[in-house]
Amino acid sequence: xxxxxxxxxxxxxxxxxxxxxxxxxxxxxxxxxxxxxxxxxxxxxxxxxxxxxxxxxxxxxxxxxxxxxxxxxxxxxxxxxxxxxxxxxxxxxxxxxxxxxxxxxxxxxxxxxxxxxxxxxxxxxxxxxxxxxxxxxxxxxxxxxxxxxxxxxxxxxxxxxxxxxxxxxxxxxxxxxxxxxxxxxxxxxxxxxxxxxxxxxxxxxxxxxxxxxxxxxxxxxxxxxxxxxxxxxxxxxxxxxxxxxxxxxxxxxxxxxxxxxxxxxxxxxxxxxxxxxxxxxxxxxxxxxxxxxxxxxxxxxxxxxxxx
Amino acid sequence: xxxxxxxxxxxxxxxxxxxxxxxxxxxxxxxxxxxxxxxxxxxxxxxxxxxxxxxxxxxxxxxxxxxxxxxxxxxxxxxxxxxxxxxxxxxxxxxxxxxxxxxxxxxxxxxxxxxxxxxxxxxxxxxxxxxxxxxxxxxxxxxxxxxxxxxxxxxxxxxxxxxxxxxxxxxxxxxxxxxxxxxxxxxxxxxxxxxxxxxxxxxxxxxxxxxxxxxxxxxxxxxxxxxxxxxxxxxxxxxxxxxxxxxxxxxxxxxxxxxxxxxxxxxxxxxxxxxxxxxxxxxxxxxxxxxxxxxxxxxxxxxxxxxxxx
Lengths: 308, 310
Known about the structure:
The complex is a heterodimer. Chain A has 2 domains: about 55 residues; about 230 residues, MetI-like fold (Orthogonal Bundle), CATH 1.10.3720.10. Chain A contains 12 helices and no strands. Chain A starts with 6 loop residues before the first helix and ends with a helix. Chain B is built from 11 helices and no strands. In chain B, helix 3 crosses helix 10 and helix 6 crosses helix 8. The relative contact order of chain B is 0.14.
């Protein structure tokens, strides 16, 4: 008797065929979910480019990049992105003055000095600092940090880039510290032991062996931190004032690219007005800035993961 | 000769003790900075509680926003936030988990998979306001969902998708190969292995990821301002459950809305001092919820780690 044609085997084969087909279908469904990520990226690019292209029909790229005034909502509209870029860069600069030293020192401490148990306890708590809603940080900057700063500089305006930048810096400390620490921990143990064997102390080992060894990862931490600061919105929208101002002086009020988008969104602009299109042009500039930073950061982290 | 050696030894000792001192100084600096950051978090929370103390009370939760600070409440805000979070979780969980399963269990190693992976990494770094612009162009105008709970929920779902995907992948990766091979050995298909063996072990990690994602979404302000959330809403979306047939309705999905962070932003940006107490109270609630969700996530991770012994 032929084995395969017995009723029992036929049933088993039919069931197997069914299960294999189901497996294929499930795989396609799962793939579709994975493609949502690709679709999102494509949609972001298409929408930003499509809506900005309408904007650039009215405004020449030369005007956009070289004019020193940004007043798209005024009767006498001017469309120079420079004041928004200068605001963004100034706030980011202030934030980095806080985040880079504090983040790096905390990373070195956690990776090279802290006891295992302390590290395991402190890291989740530190990450809570990065989980605080940004609108709460905005409140903090406007109503707690600025009044304190005004005690030192009495003529500091109520809205200024300094307090916004300081608070954003604090906000990205956990982020910078966490990536930098990962990079330092990826430095192999024998390099540290070699250094100890030469009579170096922990600090010397940390500064002269571990930090240079983890350099690309630490650089990635800084770059991803910059990208965070550039894209941060609510703190600047609340605490820095929303007036475009071509200056690099952090004690003045100014608007960033993100704050401008919020300002326009708060109003009720018709769908096809140039004001509406201008936020997509501003968003495109923001997207390009962060994308470049993220790509550099991506390759730098990949390098430190592969180096050892 | 002997004297010369003595001095060098003395010098080495002095140098060594100096270097060891530096070590201690560095430890002190590190600890100070670390606890300084943690102190800021504590100060922030207690300041919000103190400034908002006068506003905590039943009325604050059951009143609509008002022109008078002392009568304004967060009813429409917390209802809006709850509905948005519901939509976000409902979309982000299945899509995120499915994408993670695909990448971890199914995907062949090729350029196409690489593209998906790079996309996920890249999306995690896109500023949240850019998601707002995406939603404005895509959900609000192209799909015509309007400035609705649905648009906001979908936007935040896309925003936290990378968080859910990364967390799920990590917990899938933690399941040992031996478990999969034992199931394959008994003739299970790939989906059966995943569904019956791998997923149950990774539930803890997936839940942790979802809660962390939602704790991020709950405080996100910029993207939903961009969609066009209004800050003065004195009505509630239609209730999702009703007494009459068919008991469920979905009108709330297309309703206009406000949310906790939007309400807080509106109050912060008013020059009137009285509203700042409202902002502080709303901020304290928002921050409290974020911290609570993070604590739950940490607890779940801890529990599951303890329960599973490979």
